[in-house]
Amino acid sequence: MMVMGPQNDAVKIAVVGAGIAGLHCAKILKERGFNVTVFDKELEVGGRMKTSEIDGFLIDHGFHVLQTAYPETSKIINYKSLECKPFKSGARVVDTRNGKIRMKLMADPWRNPIRGLLSSLNGFLSFKDLLRIALLRRSIMKGKLEQCFDGNDETTLEFLQKRKLSEDSINRFFLPLFGGIFLESELNTSERLFRFIFRMMAKGKMVLPKNGIGSIPLSIANQIGDDNIRLGVEINRIEDKALRFRGEAHRFDLVIKAFSEPTDGEGKHVWTIHFDAPKSPLRSKHILLNGNLVDSRSIVSHLAVPSDIQPSYAPSGRSLVTATVVGDRAVEMGYLDEEAIEQAVRNDLGDWFGDGTISTWNTLAIQHITHALPITNSNERLTNLPRNGEDAIECGDHMLHGSVEGAILSGRNSALIAINRFENNSEPIQGPKKKV
Ligand SMILES: Cc1cc2nc3c(=O)[nH]c(=O)nc-3n(C[C@H](O)[C@H](O)[C@H](O)COP(=O)(O)OP(=O)(O)OC[C@H]3O[C@@H](n4cnc5c(N)ncnc54)[C@H](O)[C@@H]3O)c2cc1C
Q: Dihedral, CA atoms, 177, 281, 107, 146, nearest 10 degrees?
């Protein structure tokens, strides 16, 4: 619990955006005693972290997990009270070459040395690859977390190639996994973000909360309280000390912007298709990666069965199957609308599990999420310190990197700047104003 600053309750602060960044920022300010109001144009909090209920299934907006190793996130999110449960570490990789369907295990050799070694014997990865991944892991896990953001800033693909990982291991493992995380199919994302996410995955677990990913921002909103959150209010103009909405100007002592300006086009985009299946097609609690993305017209990056991890995601006796298609891959293959995407996804899944099985699956939702993540390509000198706004104080994952951790760190940074502005009259610069 923070100590309240003198007369902070007389200071009116508006936070525009009830995504996880704005909510975390508002929560810190409220705990500090400020008079905070959060605004959002949507009717629910959460921004990009939302869950809807359809026919008794919990449908997250896009396949979304939480990494328990995120340092700042784990300080503020109580995984236990959200009843989070983990996917198994490692992954399964589907390989349909030569007309045979194989689902091979890519085990993490540190958590499960015997299975890890077996991964090198099942024909999926060579022993050399396994050794190189071991060296990669050792170097990424060494030193302080900030070091992930030091040094070279080439693309993820160049980074992996420089470490002499075989083309096969890159195309069949890293591409479907990290393409599906970065939401781009060229692995152009900065190697710095790759090192950070790889370290998080190696260190912690990938979990789902019992009530869906939307329960995470909701748990913060509950601490802020309904009286301090105004939903369904689109802000038309933001100034340092005023907001304009519904045709009127409203004065505040400070306004914090917690969203990014919409850009042209679709940005990084992703298609997610959710199916209602009579039973899970997977035999283990892994995610399934598409090992044939590069050598076929196949488009699904990865598939997960959230109800295998959290039975609450599906009604009793049913399974929720979620397939992810990275937007640029869909465009490259010429699949541009819901109908074409659904057909292409059903073709892929038919190859993997049999057309007869797939014909029993009902489509619950087809989501196309545009501007899903900020672009964090190489040579942007990405750091682990959030940028500040140029004029207004600004937070959101676009001020750091596209992840829950990035959004939360950024929200905290903005709150600290605001606190300092009113309590010390001097503004600490937590991160560089511009990328360095
Ligand atoms: C499909 C998908 C999968 C993801 N998977 C993962 C994952 O597995 N792990 C991970 O760490 N991260 C993941 N992320 C990233 C993570 O969800 C985001 O980094 C994070 O949610 C961003 O939060 P934010 O608060 O910065 O922005 P947002 O959530 O976008 O919040 C901004 C809010 O501002 C509101 N707003 C905008 N304009 C106005 C206006 N004019 N007036 C009022 N309100 C306004 C919006 O409605 C929105 O609620 C994923 C993202 C997506 C889309």
A: 40
